[in-house]
Amino acid sequence: MSAQASQRPPPQEGAADAATRELVKLIGAAAVGDRNAFRALYDATSAKLFGIAVSMLRSRDAAEEVLQEAYLRVWSRGATYDPQRGPPLPWLVGILRKLAINRLNRDRVVNDDIDEYAESLEAIELPIGDRIDAVRCLAALGRSQRVAVVLTYVHGFTNEEVARRMKVPVGTVKSWIRRSALHLRTQFDA
């Protein structure tokens, strides 16, 4: 072992683990009406959720409305969150995503050129590290898988709509999405 390696501090609890536990506590406290906990939850997660909303809706105004609706839902239904079923951030993203998809279905604006969409990613106001991570992870997918993921998670298409659009069987799309989501999750957790 080198002298440098022996001087490293012992590994500490992962920051991600501590952040996850803190979010669980904040959701639980907000669920019983703790406004300070709700505010802290909002402060800790709103930037990331807003970035997702903007990327899905491609409109700052629509993203703000959906974000507000998502937090209203968290406030009123926070007691339904079960940490045994999964971490809090994906739960929050799921709420936001469902609301954004509903909004997209109401205001359906389809971007036919996936490459044109990629250029619009530069306009998203996310921390540079998050943008780089997202681009890096998406770039690791094959073109068909990347297109299926973007159509599903960004544009809110159903598996059937993606299959029709890409002219492939629905089962293929489901498989691409499932495997791509697992790959992306492992990349972001790394």
Mean pLDDT: 79
Instruction: List low-pLDDT spans.
Output: 1-6
What integer value in Å does the Rg equal?
A: 19 Å
| Relative helix content | over 70%
**Strand count, sense and closure of the main sheet?**
none
Under CATH at level 1, the class of the largest domain stands as: Mainly Alpha
What would you call the structural class? Answer: mainly alpha
Number of domains as seen in the coordinates: 2
C-alpha end-to-end distance: 25 Å
Percentage of β-strand residues:
under 5%
Q: Tell me what the CATH architecture of the largest domain is.
A: Orthogonal Bundle
User: Which fold name is given in CATH as the topology of the largest domain?
Assistant: Rna Polymerase Sigma Factor, Chain: A
Globally, the shape reads globular
**SSE run:** HHHHHHHHHH
In DSSP terms (H or I, runs of 4 or more residues), the helix count works out at 10
Q: Can I get a quick summary?
A:
The chain is mainly α and 190 residues long. 74% of the residues lie in helices and 0% in strands.
Describe this structure in words.
The model is unreliable at 1-6 (pLDDT under 50). The chain contains ten helices and no strands. The radius of gyration is 19 Å and the shape is globular. The chain has two domains: 16-109, RNA polymerase sigma factor, region 2, helix turn helix motif (Rna Polymerase Sigma Factor, Chain: A), CATH 1.10.1740; 111-190, Winged helix-like DNA-binding domain superfamily/Winged helix DNA-binding domain (Arc Repressor Mutant, subunit A), CATH 1.10.10. Helix content is 74%, strand content 0%. Helix 3 runs antiparallel to helix 4, helix 8 packs across helix 10 (170-189) and helix 9 packs across helix 10 (170-189). The chain has helices at 3-7, 15-31, 35-57, 60-77, 88-106, 114-120, 128-139, 143-154, 159-166, 170-189. With 190 residues, the protein is mostly helical.
